[in-house]
Design brief:
The structure is a single chain. This protein has 282 residues and is of the alpha+beta class. It contains nine helices and eleven strands. The strands form two sheets. An eight-stranded antiparallel β-sheet has the order 4-9-11-10-6-7-5-8.
Length: 282
């Protein structure tokens, strides 16, 4: 018998292609790929000549094609059909590469944020220079109602978050009049930070929302950290107001609150909220 037609058991043929024997049995069961030889006693044998066909099936599976898509192609292979498959998979691969790059950027940003946080004096109030940032915003509903607040936050995340907790910065925006008057539970909106205007606009179009786009202006911001549960936020704002008075500063914009270590805390007492407010020097 020619070596190319030599019969191999399912176990040997599966080992040759580094797959489980059960995969071969399944492909045979659904009629996608069957052994070349089926003897009356029930023994099944594959041949080396079948290797290229199996490798093609395995390749298509790795590319994410369904069994039905593979069967359709294998039943009528052609240059035209192959070009169509390749074109579609190239497009899908480009999307996957773009998504992985975005995830990597988010992970690197998170890594940098955590490292910086570990070396900051969280009790210190500072003036920092912030670049222009692009935010997608949703109304902050049900103020004073914990259930309503939680639901509106979840709804915002559902609309704009693509990578869950590794997503872009997420927080709340408070109008200047609210924190200056001491009304610390009167937030305007939730925000999600995105890398650039085109990304923000794409997400906004995806959600059919024409109004939820906000540009956080570049400039000088006062930055403070609140360590602990949210009921400690008012005291942090009072410290910021005292700092502004001592250093002849005027608040000139909204307050932006952002949790910066939610993935690394054991209890609420370890939670860190970053507050930034744009200021002007008198």
């Amino acid at each position: 018998m020619n070596d190319y037609n030599k019969g191999l058991t399912a176990a040997k043929f599966a080992a040759l292609h580094r797959i489980n024997k059960s995969t071969l049995l399944y492909y045979d069961e659904i009629g996608l790929f069957s052994p070349a030889i089926k003897k009356p006693n029930g023994y099944r044998y594959y041949t080396y000549r079948q290797s290229s066909r199996l490798e093609m099936i395995l390749t298509f599976r790795e590319l994410g094609m369904s069994i039905e898509e593979i069967r359709d192609y294998m039943n009528a292979p052609s240059n035209e059909a192959l070009l169509e498959v390749l074109h579609e998979k190239i497009l899908e691969t480009n999307v996957a590469i773009s998504r992985l790059k975005e995830i990597k950027n988010l992970l690197v940003a998170r890594q940098k944020q955590v490292k910086n946080l570990m070396h900051l004096d969280l009790s210190q109030i500072q003036l920092v220079q912030c670049p222009e940032e692009y935010l997608l915003v949703s109304p902050y509903d049900e103020a004073g109602n914990p259930d309503g607040e939680a639901l509106s936050a979840i709804e915002h995340a559902r609309r704009f978050h693509t990578h869950r907790m590794f997503n872009h910065a997420f927080g709340t925006i408070m109008n200047r009049e609210a924190f200056e008057s001491g009304t610390f539970d009167r937030y305007d909106s939730y925000f999600t930070k995105v890398e650039n205007p085109s990304r923000a606009l794409a997400l906004r179009r995806q959600n059919k929302d024409r109004s939820g786009f906000f540009i956080k202006p570049a400039g000088t911001y006062m930055r403070a950290f609140c360590v602990g549960s949210w009921d400690k936020l008012p005291e942090t704002y009072r410290k910021m107001a005292d700092y502004a008075g001592k250093h002849h500063l005027t608040f000139s914009g909204r307050a932006f609150e952002e949790g910066v270590n939610e993935m690394a805390v054991r209890t609420w007492e370890d939670y860190v909220t970053q507050i930034t407010v744009q200021v002007e020097i008198n």
